[in-house]
Write a structure and sequence with these properties.
161 residues, five-stranded mixed sheet, two-stranded antiparallel ribbon, 7 strands, 19% strand
C-alpha cells in the first residue's frame, strides 16, 4: 500500500518509468484527459498555463483515459501526438490509465481515496484536475467543467507558497 504520493510509479506515453518523487519540489497539475471529450479544448488552456508558469516550477501531467463513454480511443503515444498537433501541447502526456473501478491506476486511487484528508470520491468525468504542492500534498481538486484558466490564481498561490 502506498503511503505517500511520492511512492507511486507512473509511465510516460513512451513507456518510460517515472516516480512521482521525480516531481518533488514542483507544483504538479494532474488531469485525466480524452481526445473525444467535449472538454478537450481545455488542453490549449493547460498549455497556456504550462508555458506561463513552467519556469516557476509548474509541471502538468495528463493521463489519457477511456473510462467515460469511450472518449479516448487512442493509445498513449497516439494521444500525445494528437494533443501536440491539435492543441500545441508540450507538457507531459503520460500512460493511458483507468481512473476508476477495479483497474484504477495507483495514482488515481491515491488521489481519490481520502488519504490526503481532502477527497474520498471517485473521478466522475474526464478533465478532473488535481493540484499538488511542491511537497506532494494534494492542495485542491477541480471538476471537469472548471476551466484551467480559472485555476490560474490557485496555481500562482501554490507556486509562490
Amino acid at each position: 500500500m502506498k503511503t505517500h504520493l511520492y511512492d507511486i510509479e507512473v509511465h510516460d506515453a513512451t513507456g518510460t518509468r517515472l516516480r512521482m518523487e521525480d516531481f518533488a519540489g514542483k507544483v504538479v497539475l494532474i488531469v485525466n484527459t480524452a481526445s473525444e471529450c467535449s472538454f478537450r479544448n481545455q488542453l490549449s488552456e493547460l498549455e497556456f498555463l504550462y508555458q506561463k508558469y513552467r519556469d516557476e516550477g509548474l509541471e502538468i501531467l495528463v493521463f489519457p483515459s477511456d473510462d467515460f463513454m469511450n472518449s479516448e480511443p487512442l493509445d498513449a503515444q497516439a494521444a500525445k501526438t494528437h494533443y501536440r498537433n491539435e492543441y500545441g501541447v508540450t507538457f507531459r502526456v503520460m500512460e493511458k490509465v483507468e481512473v476508476k473501478g477495479d483497474g484504477i491506476h495507483p495514482l488515481f486511487k491515491y488521489l481519490t481515496e481520502g488519504r490526503s484528508g481532502l477527497f474520498t470520491n471517485t473521478v466522475k468525468w474526464n478533465f478532473t484536475k488535481f493540484l499538488i504542492s511542491r511537497e506532494g500534498r494534494i492542495v485542491n481538486r477541480f471538476p471537469p467543467q472548471k476551466s484551467p484558466m480559472s485555476l490560474e490564481e490557485d496555481v500562482k498561490n501554490v507556486l509562490r507558497g
